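Next up, a chain.

===
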Amino acid sequence: MLFKRPAVTRFFSKVKKLLGMSSSSVNYSGFEYVDGFQYTSDTYKKALLDRYQSMEDAEGCRILKVAGGKKMKPDISQHEYVVVTIKRGEEKGYVVFERVPARRTEGTPSSSSMSVESRNSSANMSMASNSPSDAIDKVTFVTDAKPYPHHETTWTIKFEDSDQPAFYIAVNIAAAISECHPDYTLFNTNCYFYADMFQYMLTEECKGGVYTPGDVQAGSTQGYNFWKSSVKQGSSVEVNTKFSSQIKIFRETLEAKAARAAEVQRKTEERHQVELQQVERKVQRKEEERHQVELQQVHEQHNEELQQVHEQHNEELAREREAGRKREEELVRERERDRREIEELKKQLALNGNAAAQAR
């Protein structure tokens, strides 16, 4: 949501130099922080819509105090602005909302070459007419509640803890004013108009704030309060209507974004669950395969052992059969020897008998 064109960048650099306002070393790092002068109220609101992911993010930044400021430098017209003190967690920040005029350079569109009046947003008093020019409604983070030299307070609205409104309400107020009144006119829709309308809308939309008058009076004695009687009634109705529409769209956008994020999260979780189940099934298959392999290995080992036992048993049987055969052969030989011995004995007895007979 940043301006990219060199002419606009040069314009904001000139604003910084001319107004003497610095946003360096801002001690705030929440969603809302932006650096430099490159945001208008509309582009800043869009930036917040990009940064916030839900209404919870938006509700996390609260308004502690809102103050009207006036740059009281002698001999020049007095610029007015609004300083909003915000808090997210333990961090505190200061945001300036203000209106400054842009002026066309002859022969060049205002969008490509804009310059701020060197004095301030109420414009150089040498401008005799009340002809409109483009209004630039800036949003700037600053280091403290007194952003300009010669700062004075015109009014203050403080909120207790239980009544602190969300910061996005102030952002949408600023954007509604800018959309309803995009032109800067010297005696009507000037910086005084912007600051006062901001205060009016804030008190209308954010109840519970404690109003305190400031040290100096808002507006001017030189005709710049003209709009308060003749313009304010119609302007406030128009801005209020626009604000109601914008805040509704703002909230619906964040709710839709949160719903989409929740849907994405749900689908992501479902996908992760499916992937987890796939991984679990794959692991289970791997485990089953490994277990099957282990069972096969055990079965094969068991078969090998059985085979070895069977072979050993067969070898033992073979050895036993061989031993039996050898014993049988030995018995046969023994029987043959016994038979021969008996034959010999018979022969011997026969010979002895014959000899005895002969002797008689």
Q: What stands out?
A: Strands lie at 62-71, 80-88, 91-101, 133-142, 151-158, 183-184, 210-213.
